[in-house]
Structures are given as C-alpha cells and as structure tokens.
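@channel sequence for tomorrow's demo:
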Amino acid sequence: MKKGLSRREFVKKSSIGLVGGAVLLSTNAKSYANIIGANDRINIAIQGLGRRYSGYIEAIARKESNVRLLYLCDVMESQRIKAAKKFEKEIENKPKLENDFRKVLEDKNVDAVFIATPDHWHTPAAIMAMKAGKHVYLEKPCSHNPKENELVVAAQKKFNKVVQMGNQQRSSLEAKEIIKEIHNGIIGETYRAIAFYVNRRGAVPVQKKVPVPEGLDWELFQGPAPRRDYTYNTWDYNWHWYGWDYGTAEMGNNATHELDIARWALDVKYPEFVEVYSGKFQYKNDGWEMYDTMEATYRFPNEKIIQWDGNSRNGYKKFSTGRGTIVYGSQGSVYMDRSGYKLFDLKGKLIREKKTKGDESSVALGGGGSLSTRHAVNFFETIRGKQKLNSHIAVGAVSQMLTHYANIAYRIGKSFEVDENSGRIFDRDAMKLWSRIYEPGWEPKL
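structure tokens (generated this afternoon):
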C-alpha cells in the first residue's frame, strides 16, 4: 500500500483482489496496523429500518468495529424516528435521517451500506450502491428473481466492491466446524439433506384500497415495482404475502438460510431437477396470496438430494425444533441449526454436541445475536482487507436460486429440469418468470 494513501482511497481500494470470496491483498497485519487508526473508520448507512436492522446494532456500536453510522434511511418517517431513538442509546454520533436512498448514495463520505428493505429493492439498491462506489451488506434474499441474481453478481465483479449476503449462519463457528468435518468424511459419503422451517403466522387482512398511511412515501416504497394503489397494511411486513410485486414468499424470506446450509454441507451447486408440493391451506379466506405450505425437492448430480419442508402457519414441529438442517451420510448424520450441531453415528447414537454461546433468534422476526454481529463484523474486516467474506455474493446467489426455483415451480404448477452448470431452466413457461416487469426507469442496469 502506497504511503500517504487517504482513508477514503484506502476504503475504496480495499476490495481489490476479491475473487470468489478470497481476499488477495498482500498487506500484512503489522503494516496494516500502521495505516488504520482512530481516524480511519468506515462510514456506513442503513437502508430499511423495519425488523432486521436491530441485528446490526451490536456490530456497529462495538468500539472495535471502528465504524460510524452516518445515515438511517427509510420511506416511513416513523421507522426513521424509532431507529434513531434506538441507536441513540448505543452510539455517540447522531446519524442523519433520510427518506430517499439515492440522496444517501450521493454522499461521498459513505463507504458502505446495509440494505434491509423489502425484497424488490434488494438487487436494484445494491447495484445503485456499487455504482456509487459503496460496499454492500445485502440482506437475504439477495435478489427478487433469477435475472437479478445474475445482475448482482455481475455488478460485484464489474465494480469490484465487497458484497456480503446477509445469510448470517455462514458466520457460525459451529457450522463452519462441522461442515468442514462433513466435507472431510466424518459421516461418510453425504447423499441427502432435509431443511425445514415451522412458524405460526396468523391470518392477514384482505387487501383493500385505503389512503396512504401518514409519513409513508408510497412512491419510493414501490421503487422498482410497477405502480399500483396502496392497500391496507401492505407496508408493514405483509408485503411478504401480498403477491409477487414486493415479496418472494417464505422461500425467499426464511428458506434461504437453511437451504444455504444444506447446499454448503452437501457441496453441490445447481440441481438437475426441481419439483414442489405447495399450496395455501390455512386461513383460506384471508389476504395471504401465496402458498403457506411448501415441500420442495432438488435433485443434484451424483444422486444427491435436498428436500425443503416449510410450514408458515401450522405450528406442529415434525422435527422437534422450529428450523434447522439434517444431513445424512453413509456413516452417520448431523443436525444443525443456529444454536449449534449434533453428530450421530449410523445407529442414531449422539456422538458429539456443540452449542453456540451466542443468542440468535430461531423463528422470531428480525432479531440480532452473535451470528448477525459476527457476520457484520466480518463485512467490516473484509473491507479493511483483514478477513475473507463468509458469504460472498457469488456464493450466496447460488443458494438463492434454490428458492427461486421453488417459487417458479409453484407459480407455473409443474416440475422442471435445470442445467446443472449454468442454473438455467429448460422449461419455457418457467423461463418466462426468470425476470419481472419493472416500473419504467427503475430497471436494474450495470
């Protein structure tokens, strides 16, 4: 690193050499210590102040992170005020409150952004941020559709920024430990993984046209999505279930996490075949417009299989816990969740159990805990060139495709084959849903 490099130049250049998640900087720890000091902090902004942002507070507030929160951005005024009061108790400076994310990106002092908006904003916002020279922590799902998956990965390569996907279990020390052992053969040859999720979500209101709530910028909320009238209770979380304009259903909302662990453990990429059984079976007359029950099967090369079992509104716990992943091998099995793992022999005897020392919520909305904190800190330290990303966007996007495949299969009502190398779907009807219709002028472009 050249002598006299400014803080701004350092942060901008720190992502040079990112290839497939590896940081190839040659600066060693000793020389780095001479560069980064009290004034060399990373300036950040958060876009989206709903349920998820509180998971970043601990990482931002810890002194060792050496970051400064410059902006809190949300299209709902009450969210901005609420978040400001929450951060007021944790940090010394007072961040600016902003409605329009584009204005945040105009500030050259901002080095990195956390994007925790509704799903339809994720990829467009990430690309806008990278174009503006910002590093990105991108919440799951990293894309609203397969085409955006391709675009966000291509943008990272083009603009050479640090882009961490927010599937925080990738930062679990216990998950890293046991998956490394799985890859080294501790349960023999792996062949199957079951990922599952159970929740007790209740009925949601039937949509009806009402005035836009006070303080909500409905135009900016819609952003890349086609314009429509505001309907009751859309902005506050229920956008997840009110059609495909904004949300990606429970697959994009929660299945992302467990399917990522399953794919990681089996060491597979794209499947060869996808089939689903799904439907809306609870509260049939309410406003929920998507499936609330989903069983998806992904068949991979070498006779490996991942199965998803998701129940959004039936609280019966078939697997005794609310969410997790079970990996089967020729010599044993492993159960994993956010609390740790259990290793079993072929007879089902518990051989080893390891629990995390942190506190990451299981099926609760939003939340923080050690995994979220560790994931955000990993993002900061990768920007500085001291660590490698735990969930590089190029890796996270492959797992995200599994959720898109299931959603597409549900929407077209049939199974389909997939190119195991490119991830493209062979079915013409399925490929019609590869992308989406955007509001003119909002199409994500590199």
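heads up for whoever presents: The mean pLDDT is 91.
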